[in-house]
Write a structure and sequence with these properties.
Blueprint lengths: L10 H10 L7 H11 L11 E5 L1 H4 L2 H7 L4 E6 L1 H8 L11 H5 L7 E2 L8 E7 L8 H11 E12 L5 H10 L11 H11 L1 E15 L2 H11 L14 H11 L6 E14 L11 E2 L2 H15 L1
Parallel strand pairs: 1-2, 1-4, 2-3, 4-5, 6-8
Antiparallel strand pairs: 5-7, 6-7
Helix pairs in contact: 1-5, 7-9
Length: 300
């Protein structure tokens, strides 16, 4: 694999957003992608005893993972900047004697991502996380170290086609980059191999989301993150610019529509061995099911 071009990405912008992003609930899109990704868990027969939820406060997956693996230890892992934000979050509203509190399972204390390497989990779940990594190969290596041998990672992230309409609009208007470029799924597959994973399988789908008006569209985009391109416009935009953006996002007829490319991947951590490189395979979901049935049959 030839080394990809250096990624234009400002990690300080991500850290700033992690400190400010809401903690009450994960974005709707994250929760929907988590639901779709969970359908792929049926392809893996092994039942994990320890599950890592990477950047759990943003993944929107805690309840889903608890219901799927009720006997497993669920460990939320957070970035250092996110831990600082969570420490400042107010306590949940409501009286201490509320029956709803009694029924709610106690949430585990989040672990800083650097300490996750000691967990030896059988499943590392990373929903809508990898596109925020300034160094994706380094994050994949963290995941590999946090897994037990024969454990598996299952993840999702945004792909390069995400908000292509907004990127085109910015380019035509001369407003600079609308955001950092996202990594292609084939490159991610190669990165998995070089991180030490076995049998990486990549899949993707495009979602076209629509809003009644541009204001609602922009409000939801703000819940998903911020512009992390180092060449983004410096300083604050003006109210006049915002009106121009809203007008440009409003079609003559119909709703405001944006495309989101969702990349899914999973891979196993095999026994340590010398590696001479490898290639990733891109397959359909139907073919992926067939491959997993064959693998599970061999392990039975």
């Amino acid at each position: 694999m030839s080394d990809p071009a250096p990624r234009l990405f400002d990690p300080r912008a991500t850290e700033a957003w992690l400190r400010r992003a809401p903690v009450e609930a994960a974005p709707w899109l994250h929760q929907e992608v988590a639901r779709r990704m969970a359908e792929r868990l049926a392809l893996v027969r092994r039942t994990p005893t320890t599950v890592i939820d990477w950047w759990a406060s943003l993944s929107g997956s805690a309840e889903l993972l608890r219901s799927t693996y009720p006997q497993a230890r669920l460990v939320p892992v957070e970035a250092p900047a996110r831990l600082a934000r969570l420490a400042q979050a107010p306590a949940p509203a409501g009286p201490w004697w509320s029956p709803a509190r009694w029924r709610r399972p106690a949430a585990a204390q989040p672990v800083e991502e650097g300490a996750a390497v000691t967990l030896g989990a059988e499943l590392l779940w990373a929903n809508m996380v990898l596109h925020w990594a300034a160094d994706p190969p380094a994050m994949l290596q963290q995941w590999h170290r946090a897994l037990a041998v024969d454990g598996f990672v299952m993840f999702s992230c945004l792909g390069p086609d995400t908000v292509r309409e907004l990127r085109t609009l910015y380019s035509r208007a001369g407003w600079g980059p609308a955001g950092a470029e996202f990594v292609d799924m084939h490159d991610i597959g190669d990165m998995l191999v070089h991180a030490g994973f076995d049998d990486p399988v990549m899949d993707m789908e495009r979602l076209r989301l629509s809003w009644d008006d541009a204001c609602r569209c922009l409000a939801e985009l703000r819940t998903l993150g911020r512009n992390t391109h180092p060449r983004r416009a410096a300083g604050l935009r003006t109210a006049r610019w915002l009106r121009a953006l809203e007008a440009a996002l409003t079609p003559a007829e119909g709703p405001t529509v944006l495309t989101f490319e969702i990349v899914y991947g999973h891979a196993f951590k095999g026994l340590p061995r010398a590696r001479a490189g490898g290639e990733t395979t891109s397959v359909s979901l139907q073919d992926m099911r067939s491959m997993m049935r064959a693998r599970n049959a061999r392990r039975s």
